[in-house]
Amino acid sequence: MQSALFNRQPDDKPFLISGPCSAETEEQVLETCQRLAATGKVQALRAGIWKPRTKPGGFEGIGTKGLPWLKKAGELTGLPIAVEVATAKHVEDCLAFGVDILWVGARTTGNPFSVQEIANVLRGVQVPVLVKNPIHPELELWVGAVERLKKAGLEKVGLIHRGFSSYGNTDFRNAPMWHLPIEMKRRHPDMPLLCDPSHICGRRDTLFAVAQQALNLGFDGNMIESHIDPDNAWSDAKQQITPEVLRDLIQDLVWRHETT
Ligand code: PEP
Ligand code: MN
Fold first, then answer.
1. Which label site among 28, 49, 101, 138 has the fewest CB atoms less than 10 Å from its CB?
2. What is the CATH number of domain 15-259?
């Protein structure tokens, strides 16, 4: 399937990044990634190595020892690998292991000191960096994070829309507030914009509708979490799907009047 994340051409198909919320074990990472590659629908692999958790005591990520697992998955499948970074040390570790794409998580985008620390360590390095929107609907923080990375000289900076947090029960884990990513794209027309239906929905049954809505609105693709045993995932169990369910979901998406 023809699809690039940067320098997108008019005919490029939507880009898809998938993989587990968290790397848990070597076997889980390798099996998930190989089954994803077998779908033929995925252009990049993801896994959280360091997990920002709301409260202490939960699984906070496997840490640096998970990077070689993901690297191996990338080599076995021929797909680029993407990892969330929140500190300068995370960036250094990712670069040392040849991680192909970095992304800045929602909690980090909301913290200018952290974004600046990441930007500083990336000065003089060319690696694609995707910036998730901050947790709360503050567009200027998203804009500012992008600016800090661009000012450090990074040429490939992209955007991920993961929805916005609100207090209390809503239909979404993080409300999409579509006008905000659309305004972001208006200001940065040359940057790829992906949607993250997993963290918007927080559940499986609405993933398709959100992924489809993103394509309808002109997004460049999606990042969707997948796991070989979603119910027993160590993080975000409710929203993850198996690689095969992902394949069927992607297959049914309509893009420019055709299924993907
Ligand atoms: C994630 O992608 O696993 C993640 C932690 O996402 P967010 O930063 O959007 O909450
Ligand atoms: Mn997650």
1. 138
2. 3.20.20.70
